[in-house]
Amino acid sequence: MKLMEQKILREGQILPGDILKVGSFLNQNIDTDLLGEMGREIARLYDGAGVTKILTIEASGIAIAAAAGLSMGVPVLFAKKHRTSNVDGDVYVTKVHSFTHNEDYAVVVSRDYLLPSDRVLLVDDFLANGNALRGLIDLCNQADAELVGVAIAIEKCFSGAGDQMRAEGVRIDSLAQIESMTENGIVFRS
Amino acid sequence: MKLMEQKILREGQILPGDILKVGSFLNQNIDTDLLGEMGREIARLYDGAGVTKILTIEASGIAIAAAAGLSMGVPVLFAKKHRTSNVDGDVYVTKVHSFTHNEDYAVVVSRDYLLPSDRVLLVDDFLANGNALRGLIDLCNQADAELVGVAIAIEKCFSGAGDQMRAEGVRIDSLAQIESMTENGIVFRS
Question: How many domains are there within chain A?
């Protein structure tokens, strides 16, 4: 998606540790013109795919998932993060390791809202090591829901996780794919 | 907003401790038809008010703020919750007490994204004791931004906080106002 690539080139900041800061338009301050375009693009990519539910993870996936859900006319479900895996109630739980904070956390979704009849599109802001995504896929598997695909705003291709998951048969559509990111600049996958 | 009241009556569950569970359509699973209507209604209410930024708080305010931002064509900023007030960087911080979890947490927003020139609309899912809202207002004050108003999905009027803040001169628009909530049912303010 050209608009996303342009925005990354114009406003993204590369920080130590392969971090791309996009807080000015994507995951803290949100450019709603771009957000609307993202929602329409995801709807176009999954037109006719029979998606019944969008699943994302709090917090920075929610706005993107909401934009896609509004464009596609399907409900949006967000999984919650907990500090402990000690979670009450009738829920599916999976464990995710965060490299950013170097800790494990539990990702939780109510059994009432993720059903075996669901055809699920996963949505998130970043795909880097794929840990959060594998957690969401695990939740779908626990619910016997069908995974239709994954829509990501920005994929860090150099981490390899996205291509690994594609090789495993997961459909992944990333609106911007970063092949490399150095002090010489950002190169997108063409 | 009639659609919101109908949805609450049909799907809301009253739990002990004056909790209204609306996870099936508002704050875990999100009905995007309703969400789109909410966004358009907030846009209608604040048409011509010169709002330049919507400010919300993670996580359950984000989808509503995104819908409003998409309808109004203004950016959405979300404040983040931290366990400690020990937050690095160039940020505004305020302390909020959560009655649900009986703990204080820090609410943080980057100074880069909340400006003295901003005319801010606050958006959140619930207004009960008003603590989160007062925190967001404090962040606006710290930034010398102008508070235009507050749009809330569901106000628990019986808590008194919304009316107290109105008496202090804050404009608050709630899409559903619950006057009382007992085993005999829910009564909306007319």
Answer: 1
